[in-house]
Structure formats: structure tokens, C-alpha cells
Write a structure and sequence with these properties.
By secondary structure, the protein is an alpha/beta fold. It is built from six helices and five strands, in the order βααβααβααββ.
Length: 125
């Protein structure tokens, strides 16, 4: 299975894994599954850190890679797909994750119920 982790799931996996549901945690820990973190999530976490709403270490990217999370770049196609999505969700970061999950065949690991309105595989975190 190819897992794309929503930003809150990335942060929980990194700092508070008990907040993640047992099925999602098992999927994340399964070495047979790809675990991917979008550049959108790094961007969102960085914005929250700069606003003082999140304590993000300077080596966050390195820490993610060391934990087995693969980075996922944002392409022009991802941006066009995110912009073309129905307006079920207004958050541009989440819309990007949906577009990347759809385009890349990922299961989106999230607790955001609004994302279930999109045609995307969801694993509830």
C-alpha cells in the first residue's frame, strides 16, 4: 500500500504516535508500505512554526527521512489538479494532498472528515 500522510498524521507519527488510530499506525509501521510526506505538509508545518503555533526542529526534513518517510515533490500537474477539485475543502494544503493522492494512487491517511467527500482512498488516522 502507498500511504500519503496528512500533515497532522506526520506530526503525530513523529512526536505522538499514540494519537494515530491502531489500523493507521499498523499500516505506517508496516515495512511493506510506502510512507510518503508531501512538500505541502512540510510547507504547512513550516508556516505554522513561523507563526508560533508549532515547535518544528530545524532538521525536520532529515528526521522524517531518517524515520523512513519518503518526500513527495509538488508538480505543476499537482497544482492544476488541486485547483480543479470541487470546493469540498477550502484548505489549499489539504486540497494538494487530495490531488497528489488521486494522481499518485496513494491512500490518504487523515482524520479530516471533510476529505472523505473527494474521490480518494482514505485510511482514518
Amino acid at each position: 500500500m502507498k500511504l500519503l500522510l496528512d500533515t497532522h498524521v506526520v506530526l503525530w507519527a513523529w512526536g505522538d504516535p499514540d494519537r494515530i488510530s491502531a489500523p493507521a499506525r499498523q499500516a505506517i509501521l508496516n515495512p511493506a508500505n510506502a510512507k510518503v510526506v508531501s512538500a505541502a505538509s512540510a510547507w504547512e508545518a513550516s508556516v505554522k512554526s513561523a507563526a508560533g503555533r508549532l515547535n518544528l526542529p530545524e532538521d525536520f526534513g532529515d528526521s522524517l527521512r531518517a524515520s523512513g518517510f519518503e518526500p513527495l515533490a509538488i508538480t505543476v500537474e499537482d497544482g492544476l489538479a488541486a485547483g480543479a477539485l470541487p470546493p469540498h475543502h477550502g484548505d489549499p494544503f489539504d486540497r494538494m494532498l487530495v490531488a497528489q493522492a488521486q494522481g499518485g494512487g496513494f491512500t490518504l491517511v487523515t482524520r479530516d472528515e471533510q476529505l472523505t467527500a473527494y474521490d480518494v482512498a482514505i485510511l482514518r488516522a
